[in-house]
C-alpha cells in the first residue's frame, strides 16, 4: 500500500513533460537492443507529445543558444543549396526534409527539458539510474546468449506478420546497440553519481567498459574510453580540456587522412602489405578514395548526400576497385565531400560553438556533456554516416537527456 501511495504521489507531483521524458528514457535500452533504427520514432513521438504542452511550441527555436541555432540554420540552408548539383537531387531532398525534421524534434525535446520541475528531475534521475543498469544487464545477457531474446522476438514477429526477416549474423549482433550504449552511458553515470555515489558511477562505467570490450565493435569501446579521457581532462581544466579535445579532434582527422594516403601508396604502388584488420583496410581505402573525389570539387562539394551515389558502380572490392559503400565512414571526410569547404567550416564552427557553450556550464556537467559529445563524434568518425536518421536521433535524444540532467535550480557542481 505504501508503495502504491508513493507512486501516486510521484505522479501527482510530476508534470506531463516529466512523465514523457521518463517513458522515453526507460524505453531507450529496449529500442537500442532490439531495433536501433527505431530511435527515430523514439525521438519523434515524445517530441510531438511535448509540443502539446503550453509554451513548448514557441520555445523550440529558442531551445539552443543563438549562435548554435544560427549555425544549424546556415548549415541546413547550404545543404539545401547543394542539392541543386547533387547526383540524385530528389533523393537528397527527401533526406534533407527528414534530417531537418529530426533536428526540429530534437530542439522540441531540449525546449521541454528546460522547463521540467524539481519533482520531474527527481523522477528522471531515478529513470536514468534504472534504465542505465537495465541496459547493462540486457546488453550483457544478449551478448552472452548470442542474441537469444532478439531471435525470440524476431521469431514471434515472423509468426505474426507476412514478412520473413532474417536474424542478424552473430558478428553483426549488437553493433549499433553498443554505439547507443557508449553515448547513453554518460547521462546515466551523472544520474547514478547524483542519486547514489561517485563510486557507484565508477562501477557502472567499468561495467559498460567491460561489455564494450567483449563485443565486436571496436569503435564503441574506443569512443567510450576516449570519453573517459576527455571527462578527466575537462574536469581538471575546463577550458583547456575542451580546447585540447577540439584540437585533438582536428589532428586525428588530419592524421587519418595522411595515413590513408600512405597506406594505399604502400599497398598498391610498393606492394607492401601492412598487418591490419580487413575492416581497417577498407576504411583507409574509402578515405583515400573520398579525398581523391574531394579534390574535384573542394569548395562546393558533390552535393548533399552525394557520397551515396559516388563509386556505387565498383562495389566488388576495396583494392584496385575503389568505392564508397553508402557513406565514407568518416564524419569530416563526408562533410567535405558533400558540402565542400563551406560545409566543413560550418560543421567545425558548430562543434566548436557547442563545446564552448558546454564550457560555460558547471564543471561536473560540462565534463559529462563534453565526454558524451566526444564519444558520439568518435563513433561517427569511424563507423556511421552523418545523415543516418537513427544515428542523428541518438544525438538529439542524448542532447535532450543531458539538458534534463543539467537543468538544476541549485547550480550544484557535482560530477
Question: What structural class should be given to the helix and strand makeup?
Answer: mainly alpha
Strand content: under 5%
Which ranges are low-confidence, i.e. pLDDT below 50, for 5 or more consecutive residues? Answer: 313-320, 409-415
Number of domain units = 1
Your description of this structure?
The chain has 415 residues and is mostly helical. It has one domain. It is 73% helix and 0% strand. The C terminus is likely disordered.
Write the layout of secondary structure elements.
Elements: H1 2-13, H2 16-34, H3 39-50, H4 56-59, H5 66-82, H6 89-113, H7 118-144, H8 148-160, H9 175-195, H10 198-214, H11 218-236, H12 238-269, H13 278-294, H14 331-359, H15 363-382, H16 389-406
Question: How would you summarize what this structure contains?
Answer:
The chain has 16 helices and no strands.
Amino acid at each position: 500500500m505504501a508503495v502504491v501511495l508513493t507512486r501516486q504521489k510521484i505522479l501527482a507531483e510530476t508534470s506531463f513533460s516529466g512523465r514523457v521524458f521518463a517513458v522515453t528514457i526507460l524505453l531507450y535500452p529496449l529500442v537500442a537492443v532490439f531495433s536501433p533504427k527505431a530511435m527515430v520514432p523514439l525521438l519523434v513521438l515524445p517530441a510531438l507529445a511535448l509540443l502539446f504542452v503550453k509554451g513548448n511550441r514557441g520555445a523550440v527555436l529558442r531551445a539552443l543558444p543563438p549562435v548554435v541555432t544560427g549555425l544549424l540554420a546556415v548549415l541546413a540552408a547550404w545543404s539545401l543549396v547543394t542539392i541543386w548539383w547533387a547526383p540524385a537531387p530528389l533523393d537528397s531532398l527527401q533526406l534533407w526534409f527528414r534530417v531537418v525534421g529530426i533536428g526540429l524534434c530534437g530542439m522540441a525535446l531540449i525546449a521541454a527539458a528546460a522547463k521540467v520541475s524539481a519533482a520531474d528531475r527527481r523522477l528522471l534521475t531515478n529513470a536514468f539510474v534504472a534504465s542505465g543498469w537495465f541496459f547493462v544487464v540486457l546488453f550483457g545477457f544478449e551478448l552472452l546468449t548470442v542474441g537469444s531474446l532478439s531471435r525470440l522476438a524476431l521469431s514471434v514477429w515472423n509468426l505474426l506478420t507476412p514478412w520473413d526477416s532474417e536474424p542478424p549474423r552473430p558478428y553483426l549482433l549488437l553493433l549499433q546497440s553498443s554505439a547507443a550504449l557508449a553515448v547513453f552511458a554518460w547521462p546515466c553515470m551523472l544520474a547514478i553519481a547524483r542519486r547514489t555515489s561517485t563510486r557507484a558511477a565508477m562501477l557502472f562505467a567499468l561495467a559498460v567498459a567491460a561489455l564494450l570490450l567483449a563485443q565486436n565493435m571496436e569503435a564503441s569501446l574506443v569512443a567510450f574510453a576516449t570519453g573517459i579521457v576527455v571527462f578527466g581532462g575537462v574536469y581538471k581544466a575546463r577550458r583547456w580540456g575542451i580546447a585540447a579535445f577540439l584540437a585533438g579532434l582536428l589532428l586525428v582527422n588530419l592524421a587519418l587522412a595522411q595515413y590513408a594516403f600512405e597506406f594505399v601508396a604502400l599497398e598498391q604502388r610498393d606492394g607492401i602489405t601492412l598487418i591490419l584488420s580487413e575492416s581497417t583496410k577498407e576504411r583507409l581505402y574509402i578515405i583515400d578514395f573520398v579525398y581523391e573525389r574531394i579534390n574535384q570539387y573542394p569548395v562546393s562539394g558533390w552535393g548533399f548526400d552525394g557520397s551515396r551515389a559516388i563509386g556505387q558502380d565498383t562495389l566488388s572490392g576495396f583494392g584496385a576497385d575503389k568505392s564508397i559503400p553508402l557513406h565514407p565512414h568518416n564524419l569530416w571526410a563526408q562533410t567535405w565531400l558533400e558540402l565542400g569547404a563551406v560545409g566543413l567550416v560550418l560543421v567545425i564552427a558548430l562543434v566548436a560553438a557547442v563545446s564552448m557553450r558546454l564550457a560555460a556550464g558547471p564543471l561536473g556537467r560540462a565534463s559529462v556533456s563534453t565526454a558524451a559529445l566526444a564519444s558520439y563524434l568518435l563513433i561517427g568518425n569511424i563507423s556511421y554516416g552523418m545523415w543516418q536518421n537513427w544515428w542523428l536521433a541518438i544525438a538529439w535524444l542524448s542532447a535532450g537527456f543531458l539538458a534534463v540532467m543539467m537543468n538544476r535550480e541549485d547550480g550544484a557542481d557535482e560530477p
